[in-house]
Amino acid sequence: MWQIGTDIPILAANLTSMYHTHTLQERIADELAELRIPEQPANLYEPVRYMLQIGGKRIRPLLTLMAADLFSISDMEAAVPAAVAVELFHNFSLVHDDIMDNAPLRRGHRTVHEKWNPNIGILSGDNLLIMAYAQLAKCPANNLPAILETFNTMAAQVCEGQQLDMDFERSATVGIDDYLHMIRLKTSVLLGAALKMGALLAGANKADAQLIYDFGVGVGIAFQLQDDILDVYGDPEQFGKQRGGDILANKKTYLLVKALEMADTATRSTLNDWLADHSNPLDKIRNVTAIYDALGIRSEVEAAKQLHVKQAYTALDALPVEVARKTPLRELAYRLLNRGQ
């Protein structure tokens, strides 16, 4: 699963909000630290504790509490269990995704299946999901049906997105619409659901809850497009990843899909030759990047990103809430979508 963000400094305090963003971040950290995780069996619970302790930026649960605060929730505690559930689900998905991707590192530390083994990774990931549902059960009874519907729909869609991503690895006919659909499911719906649950717990009506969901989905898609750009053009020191990693893995990104769509026959043949070449990684990165440059692919991705940014802000602007109360969400989105630049 693609990981979002760094610690995000908010440009200005939310003066009309009941809670400052840093207060919400601290509340999430405290709640995660206080989770009662059994000691035995050690091979089941130590990986859970490890995964929750190795970092992460907690952007998704923060969005849940920010959405609740946006709609003037009177008691933030009502939204905390849902925020914790979102973070537990996210970590569950990361543990399982790392197994499927055979990834050695997560957040600069050994992945669970590398530190223990894949079977332990599967079980401990399953347990994180069970823990998420235990948190959801703490939500107010009158909100629980809508919360569960939102959460369960999101969880199924994330699995669908992960399967599509794996299917794309073996497909030569992935189109732009296919790619955008996949990243919407795999990455974006979790942001949307995190916001929607916070809004519902704060008493938002269905229309407003849908608007803030749409805001989250738009930001999530734009974020992934930014991630695709940074993999090729970002500063590794700022981005925190190896430049060209997606190129070396022949990963279906917006850049590659668009290049295959735009290239003439000769250029497409050259690009496919480089995709099949694993002999010289640096040459592969340099030559594929040169093809992207010649086709103007970066500007194509930037334009697509800005389209989804516009759609996200249009949804946020449509909410019948004071502009000042929406400022922290707008600023957080800005920071996420302009990182690495």
Topology:
Layout: H1 21-33, H2 42-53, H3 59-70, H4 80-101, E1 105-106, E2 109-110, H5 112-115, H6 118-136, H7 144-169, H8 176-201, H9 206-233, H10 236-239, H11 245-248, H12 254-262, H13 265-276, H14 281-295, H15 297-318, H16 323-337
Antiparallel strand pairs: 1-2
Helix pairs in contact: 1-3, 2-6, 3-4, 3-8, 3-16, 4-6, 4-7, 4-8, 7-8, 8-9, 9-15, 12-15, 13-14
Compose a concise summary of this entry.
The protein has helices spanning 21-33, 42-53, 59-70, 80-101, 112-115, 118-136, 144-169, 176-201, 206-233, 236-239, 245-248, 254-262, 265-276, 281-295, 297-318, 323-337; strands at 105-106, 109-110.
> Can you say what the CATH homologous superfamily is?
Farnesyl Diphosphate Synthase
Q: How many DSSP-defined strands? A: 2
Number of domains: 1
| Radius of gyration over C-alpha positions, nearest whole angstrom | 20 Å
CATH architecture: Orthogonal Bundle
Contiguous low-pLDDT stretches (5 residues minimum) are 1-16
